[in-house]
Amino acid sequence: MQHQNRSLSILDEILEDVRKAADRLEEEIEEHAFDDNKSVKGVNFEAVLRVEEDEANPKQNLTKREAEDDLGLSMLIDSQNNRYILTKPRDATIPRADHHFLKDIVTIGMLSLPCGWLCTTIGLPTMFGYIICGVLLGPSGLNSIKSVVQVETLGEVGVFFTLFLVGLEFSPERLRKVWKIAFQGPCYMTLLMIAFGLFWGHLLQIRPTQSVFVSTCLSLSSTPLVSRFLMGSARGEKEGDADYGAVLLGMLVVQDVQLGLFIAGMPTLIQAGAGSHSSVVMETLRILALVGQILFSLAAACLLCLVVKTYLVGPYYRRLRVEGKGNKEILILGVSAFIFLMLMVTELLNISMELGCFLAGALISSQGHMVTEEVVAYIEPIRDFLVIIFFASIGLHVFPTFVVYELTVLMVLTLSVVIMKFALAALVLSVLLPKSWQYVKWIVAAGLAQVSELSFVLGSRARRAGIISREVYLLILSVTTLSLLLAPVLWRAVLTRCVPRPERRSSP
């Protein structure tokens, strides 16, 4: 008994030391976020509802301590019907998983298979199946997706990898051939779209700020969608061939830069809508300064790419191969780290993150065909899964009931936008392209004749800022979705009629 008592005493001492160490650890890592932020200017106290994760068996009569230690992820709902889930727990020593998010990803993955399979069977791109999956699981369907923001964020990572793979196929030599067309074309198209928007807005008595926003928003085209088109079509590679893929991707990259500039200019539209003319002048001067800043940032990005291509990317990739010793994980992590580095650099330079991913692919493609094929083989499966999430997240914002209610109006608007963008692109390219490349204008125009999915983001920001109304916001969402659905049909039709046959292309 004495020996047993002595053993228990030693065990108690050890546990006491562990308890003290655990207390010190909690004190060190605990953040007093509530106390530190409750006195910050602009912070308001608001009542929220706490909904337990297990709705079938809600936990009742929990003490405060039991509620704090509950490992489940409760959902908070504020008075504006916004829903919040736990992002960082108070006790960081206990691992937690966002079960809502996990269930959402699993559900999307399972339902995407039959939807994509069905579209493949009837001859449609699988992209439609993924969008249908999002519609079925979104607010218009089963409404089973709870972590909508998290799903959309993961889908954006798929866009990053898509543009990286596009950059792998888009060498700087090809960009050098078409950079003038790629830069001038989107600028002229945007100006013409704004002019048409102001003209029709004046006839229909729509506010100029709303006309400018809608026109600029509709002038953008979907880079991920066009990238998928180009991966399944052949492009000219011979000397003297018209490389419509280079022209199209170059114009889309410039549009991504325009997007960043437009987001920066949204405060001016807000000021203009308020009717403060003196402040509008100052805001216009500020936007001109922002244009100069973005041009400077683009020049800095080009200089950085030149330095990286000359001194860094080659030794970096060879080091990955040597240190990894054939380990696929090291190579994937190394390439992903390079993508995210370029993404952060372009973000710090106040240009689009998508452009950084594109430049990362172009830099790695400069190392040769063998390197490009190896990287594509490793990164493409990751991209394919994340792109499924991306297109499913688009389906979450498709509202079939609204489309059915206003089908006639939406079809007229969608066809008008598609035809107008197709005609404007063909007109601009007729002036910019050489005579031997004239058939390219129809292919590029078909690739640009849809509205970018980024209009969802722009529309939500504009609605919160009061630039557009709820009705205009829903119209933009619906027209964007319908134009994306029509895009593959138009692309296939134009390719069938306009792409020269091999024997014609090889002839002088």
From TrEMBL:
Its main location: membrane. Keywords: Antiport, Coiled coil, Ion transport, Membrane, Signal, Transmembrane, Transmembrane helix, Transport. It comes from the Eukaryota. The chain crosses the membrane at residues 115-137, 149-169, 181-200, 212-231, 243-265, 285-308, 329-349, 385-405, 412-433, 439-460, 472-491. It holds the Pfam family Na_H_Exchanger. GO terms for cellular component: membrane. It is a multi-pass membrane protein. The keyword Ligase does not apply. It is found in: Membrane. This is Transmembrane and coiled-coil domain-containing protein 3 isoform X3. The gene is TMCO3.
